[in-house]
Design brief:
The protein contains no helices and 16 strands. By secondary structure, it is mainly β.
């Protein structure tokens, strides 16, 4: 991805990490599930610092527990975001198979509100899988917004921060006709006291991370 004001990491994809004390399923930087020793990190996030690419890939990965909701983030209202694929800043690149046929697309799009004001940047991949009913799409979207981030797998919000934290666990369907993403909040969210939970993290060094990548559409 091209440089942008979103993160020092431009990784978008899925990882399954097998460790002596358990396993981690990671979507972009969101920990979708942890088992064994790492079960407490489910719903949290990772921070990756790559220290070497050659001859071996080496990185330090910090695991962060899920952040508690503040009272004002509980049960937020429905919100609509507008990725702008007509912007001069938009980047769209096809993903091709071995014969040169398009099987998906890579996207980097500015995100705006309904009035056209800039909110941030969306990085995304889309893969298309043929089936008898038509094309099935599968993938990830990572939205880096000025008031928080969103990690979306297909149309499920697997992780959210900042003012969007209350949307974690529910849906973000996309309308192709008018190019909008609607954030639908969960019907109920367990309340936590932000002042009574402590944030924990754990750092590990990995020699090799195998990424199993599936991607999303606009």
């Amino acid at each position: 991805f091209a440089p942008g004001p979103y993160s020092d990491s431009s990784y978008v994809g899925n990882r399954l990490v097998f460790l002596p004390g358990g396993e981690l399923t990671v979507c972009d930087d969101a920990i979708v599930q942890g088992t064994g020793t790492y079960s407490k990190y489910t719903g949290g996030s990772i921070k990756e610092n790559v220290t070497s690419l050659h001859p071996n890939f080496v990185a330090e990965i910090t695991l962060n527990e899920k952040e508690p909701y503040a009272d004002h983030l509980v049960n937020p209202a429905e919100v609509t975001l507008f990725p702008n694929d007509n912007s001069a800043e938009a980047i769209q690149k096809p993903i091709l198979n071995s014969t040169g046929a398009p099987i998906g697309v890579r996207l980097q799009l500015p995100v705006e509100n309904q009035d056209g004001a800039p909110l941030g940047t969306m990085l995304a991949y889309a893969y298309l899988f043929p089936n008898p009913a038509g094309q099935t799409r599968n993938g990830n979207r990572h939205l880096f917004l000025k008031d928080g981030d969103l990690t979306i797998f297909n149309d499920i919000i697997v992780h959210a921060t900042g003012i969007y934290a209350g949307y974690s666990g529910d849906r973000a369907p996309t309308s192709e006709s008018d190019h909008k993403i609607t954030l639908i909040p969960p019907q109920t969210i367990e309340r936590h006291s932000a002042g009574k939970q402590t944030k924990a993290s754990e750092t590990m060094s990995v020699l090799l991370v195998v990424a199993l990548v599936s991607f999303v559409w606009l």
